[in-house]
Design goal:
Helix content is 30%, strand content 20%. By secondary structure, the chain is an alpha/beta fold. The chain has one domain: Metallo-dependent phosphatases (Purple Acid Phosphatase, chain A, domain 2), CATH 3.60.21. The strands form two sheets. A six-stranded mixed beta sheet has the order 4-3-2-1-10-11, covered by helices on one side. A five-stranded mixed beta sheet has the order 5-6-7-9-8, with no helix packed on it. β10 and β11 form a beta hairpin. α2 packs parallel to α4. It starts with a strand and ends with a strand. The relative contact order is 0.16.
Length: 243
């Protein structure tokens, strides 16, 4: 099993060329996109539509190979607006997402060697498991219920605490920040031990407390790169960082 993990796209069209280039090199069995396809500094909703068209077409062409995770910026166009939301074609983006919502997933799992990794846009904290997902013995079945009935459960995925500007008691797997994961890991064992997440911009792909952080394509307001634009790859022998 060879897998490519793609951090937040945010209308960066060059990432699709990178996916094709790396796929030609590795011939991936799975390519997992970690959400936040739309919105970025100095881009428009026209570009968001183009980005959505590209990922949706990939999924339709090969639904087993391409996994499209749902991000907080997708939630922004389905009723739960966040910073960076672009209003120019608001209704059109909402319609595109809702018409194709069954092509997206709130989470997925992937076996890398002997370890199963839980992949979500932002990561799942113990706090969210205990307060929303019915505890450590039931979180899998609860998140699967959410996944099968996405539009009916968007309010539970939109939870965001003060670290990212919200006011809820805990953050969902669309909003949890790296700082939250570090905080909980400082005093309790994670219920989900191995995760791969995007959402929090990082300068380079990092592994901290068994969580891979892969959002390396973020930019500053002026368009300058924040991260090193790297990608995480699993090739049956181990993890590799590709640029």
């Amino acid at each position: 099993m060879r897998v490519l993990f793609i951090g937040d796209i945010h209308n960066h069209s060059y990432m699709f060329d990178d996916v094709e280039r790396l796929d030609n090199k590795y011939d991936f069995d799975r390519v997992i996109f970690f959400g936040d396809y739309v919105d970025d500094w100095n881009t428009t909703n026209h570009q968001s539509l183009e980005t959505l068209e590209k990922v949706i077409n990939l999924k339709i062409t090969n639904p087993e190979k391409y996994i499209l995770l749902w991000g907080n910026h997708e939630n922004s166009y389905t009723g739960y607006k966040c910073s960076g939301h672009q209003f120019e074609l608001d209704d059109v983006v909402e319609l595109k997402l809702k018409d194709n919502i069954d092509l997206f997933d709130f989470y997925t799992t992937i076996k890398c060697g002997e370890i199963e990794y839980i992949c979500t846009h932002a990561g799942i904290t113990n706090d969210y498991i205990n307060k929303v997902l019915n505890g450590k013995d039931h979180w899998r079945e609860t998140i699967e219920i959410f996944n099968k009935n996405k539009l009916k459960n968007l309010d539970m995925t939109a939870l965001c605490n003060y670290i990212r500007g919200g006011s809820d008691e805990c953050s969902s797997f669309l909003w949890a920040d790296k700082r939250e994961h570090l905080y909980y890991a400082s005093f309790e064992e994670p219920i989900i031990k191995y995760q791969i997440v995007g959402h929090t911009p990082v300068e380079s792909i990092s592994l901290v407390n068994n969580i891979f952080y892969i959002d390396t394509h973020s930019t500053y307001r002026n368009g300058d790169a924040y991260g090193d634009k790297s990608y995480l790859v699993w090739d049956d022998k181990g993890f590799i960082v590709e640029v």
